[in-house]
């Protein structure tokens, strides 16, 4: 039964209908400038967050109270009434909630798997936690994809099929006011990164639901054909992550809708499996890992990466970069606040891994620079997968690749001043030289890694101290300058 004596505080990533229990429930929304002043966010991320919060307040009308304050504590004090909140999505927010008298923390929402179930499963795994194993367990427990054949062999990559454009996002008076407020804050000294642009991502449940329906109807059928290449544009991806991470969509209805498309033949089994694996496999897995490992996870650094992020990277200064693949991806982040997963891992994360940038700083950069960036996602995908800094808890190999590999998966190497196969010299690809330097620095730590066995064996077989020293000196000289 709903406790009508309490306000339900909806955080800025809890804006969908599944975070409320009753149509008459009183809702508290809080807007605080301090969240934007602490560290520079991408301008479009800041706009999307404020727009979504204010649109939710407008939808709820008289049921909602939107308080603008310098801090959350100030807002709760101003309300002066009992409040409850659904379990926050970050440790910092949860720690704050537990310090507020009269604030009741409810169980988490927006995910399918129960935390106790995951903990029991993980405890049995004795530290060897793999997404594929969890995915099999969770599918069986929740009856997901039972009647759909296994996808079989991964299909060869093909260009994304033609599809009608998704429903457009139409800015309104709320967006106009958000933009005016952000302009004013910026003039008052709050710093943002990236470029402003018309809002391109859903800020309401209705907008997000329309985008999901369009994806299921028009892009899911070809979804299995468009995975893993750097050249893939928006058609090859659902681009729904920000909607799920803002809480505008719940994953279970999306999973069931994809299953129905597979059963009716509207989409092939391989496409349905790929979509569900990302939403019900990886997304659920990352959320659960964030809470299962607790704060110990963030302090890991197995590869001894200690260099700070350089200023050009932190500012999204793509114009300072000559390496075309990195310049293109960084420009995309600057202009849209988004990049697909292949680009995040093989271009952005790979570059930082090769240079030994601090994993926690890089995770924070992803959280601030991407519209779908959240602490619980970036901890595991950046610290665990991309930077391999967690003693292989999440993945079995570092996402380290040379320029030749990037060339094979579609990097725009043809027009680049660097040569993918060159390791030394002025024309040496920074990814190729960086990859070899990475292997030299970490060869003892990576010994026995099956994914890098060939490269490590070649390094040992053709051991040349002079070449090794030259590669290390070259990459050290390149240092933190834009490539």
TrEMBL record:
Pfam families: DPRP (PF04244)
Compositional bias of kind Basic and acidic residues: 459-483
Origin superkingdom: Bacteria
InterPro entries referenced in this protein's UniProt entry, alphabetically: Crypto/Photolyase_FAD-like_sf, PhrB-like, Rossmann-like_a/b/a_fold, UV-DNA_repair_photolyase
SUPFAM superfamilies listed in its UniProt record: Cryptochrome/photolyase FAD-binding domain
Lineage: Bacteria, Bacillati, Actinomycetota, Actinomycetes, Micromonosporales
Region (Disordered) location: 146-172, 458-483
Signal peptide: none
Keywords: Lyase
One MF term in the entry's GO annotations: lyase activity
The protein's name: Deoxyribodipyrimidine photolyase-related protein
